[in-house]
């Protein structure tokens, strides 16, 4: 019977080693190690043996059973590993590689500044008004008191879509749209958005940048209201120590027109390259809305008055973060962008 037992063991191991699929193992287990399996059947015959033979064959049968179990476990593990290695070798996707970490997105530095400016003016009661980036000559120039062939057009050379359609050179055409929409009610809006200019690109000038326009129309609105709003804006953006200065200027759509400057936050009055040793930095253009523009928007200038301003967005961001070249904003340099 011991021979029979050895033959059974050898046959079982031969079959076990020949398997190539993990699925085949279950069948093998059933055939040899289950209650109805060949080894159990073999053990049932022990009763026919003599009292001397029985313990010897019984012990041998139990050893064979134990060793078949161990071979089974080992084969199962090695087959699984073989399968995994094969899958890794065959497949282009290495499932054992750790996944790639997704980088967290962030807002572009211009968007951050734009939102900050929006927030400051919202707190002062300004509504946000959206106006188109592609404008007509009429809105971008004519209704803003800049007729065809007026020399002031040279201040805002732009990209023409055709003879009558332009990429807006400033956010000011939105003033007319807001007036036409809100007439005859008072207005207090800001108009943020992108503007385009046929511009020589320099460390301070891009051909595409953001502006935030402001417009108020009401009764008895005065220049002092404009200066108050601009001072509050500078304090909220750069801190309460900032000083504002105004200079006379010229814009066809405001009268009088001013340029608003702020004392240099980088050198605090000592003089540096950024403020060109003048101690002052330009914040934006502004003025009282020109009577012609009020009339073009539907408001009678004898009854209504208002102020308007136009601020850059990139330049204040440059000041806040000490950036010395505006071209970095849209240069697709991730190392730059990820700093903010
Ligand atoms: C204007 O665009 C007027 N529409 C502003 C205005 C509105 C005046 C309402 C009166 C009433 P200006 O061209 O100066 O003005 O531009 C305003 C601001 O835009 C500048 O102070 C500057 O911050 C920003 N800016 C102008 N040109 C560029 C440029 N090429 N690159 C980046 N920022 C610019």
Describe, in plain words, how this protein is organized in 3D.
The protein has 340 residues and is α+β, with helices and mostly antiparallel strands. The protein folds into two domains: 2-89, no CATH class; 109-337, BirA Bifunctional Protein, domain 2, CATH 3.30.930. It has eleven helices and nine strands. The chain has helices at residues 2-18, 22-33, 38-44, 53-90, 109-123, 137-140, 173-182, 223-238, 291-296, 314-321, 334-337, and strands at residues 127-128, 134-136, 165-167, 187-196, 208-217, 244-249, 254-263, 280-289, 307-312. Strands 1-4-5-9-8-7-6 form a seven-stranded mixed β-sheet. β6 and β7 form a beta hairpin. α1 (2-18) runs parallel beside α4 (53-90) and α2 (22-33) runs antiparallel to α4 (53-90). It is rod-shaped. The relative contact order is 0.10. Residues 170, 172, 197, 199, 205-206, 209, 211, 213, 251, 254, 282, 284-287, 308-310, 312, 314-315, 326 line the site of adenosine-5'-[phenylalaninyl-phosphate].
């Amino acid at each position: 019977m011991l021979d029979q037992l050895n033959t059974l063991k050898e046959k079982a191991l031969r079959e076990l080693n020949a398997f190539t699929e993990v699925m085949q193992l279950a069948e093998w287990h059933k055939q040899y190690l289950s209650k109805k399996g060949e080894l159990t059947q073999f053990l049932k015959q022990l009763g026919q043996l003599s009292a001397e033979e029985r313990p010897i064959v019984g012990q041998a049968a139990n050893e064979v059973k134990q060793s078949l179990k161990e071979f089974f476990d080992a084969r199962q593990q090695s087959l699984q590993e073989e399968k995994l290695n094969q899958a890794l070798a065959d497949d282009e996707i290495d499932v054992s590689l750790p996944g790639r970490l997704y980088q967290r997105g962030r807002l572009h530095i211009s968007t951050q500044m734009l939102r900050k400016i929006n927030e400051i003016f919202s707190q002062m009661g300004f509504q946000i008004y959206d106006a188109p980036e592609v404008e007509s000559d009429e809105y971008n120039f004519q209704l803003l008191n800049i007729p065809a062939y007026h020399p002031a057009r040279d201040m805002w050379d732009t990209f023409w879509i055709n003879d009558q359609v332009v990429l807006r050179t400033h956010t000011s055409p939105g003033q007319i749209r807001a007036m036409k929409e809100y007439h005859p009610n008072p207005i207090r809006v800001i108009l943020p958005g992108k503007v385009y200019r046929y511009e020589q690109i320099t460390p301070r000038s891009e051909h595409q940048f953001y502006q935030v326009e402001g417009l108020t129309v009401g009764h008895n609105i005065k220049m002092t209201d404009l200066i108050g709003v601009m001072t509050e804006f500078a304090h909220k953006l750069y801190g309460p120590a900032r000083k504002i200065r105004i200079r006379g200027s010229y814009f066809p759509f405001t009268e009088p027109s001013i340029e608003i400057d702020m004392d240099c936050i980088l050198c605090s009055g000592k003089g540096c390259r950024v403020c060109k040793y003048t101690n002052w930095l330009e914040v934006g253009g502004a003025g009282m809305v020109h009577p012609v523009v009020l009339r073009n928007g539907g408001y009678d200038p004898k009854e209504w008055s208002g102020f308007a301003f136009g601020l850059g967005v990139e330049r204040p961001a440059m000041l806040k973060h000490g950036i010395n070249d505006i071209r970095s904003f849209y240069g697709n340099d991730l190392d730059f962008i990820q700093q903010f």
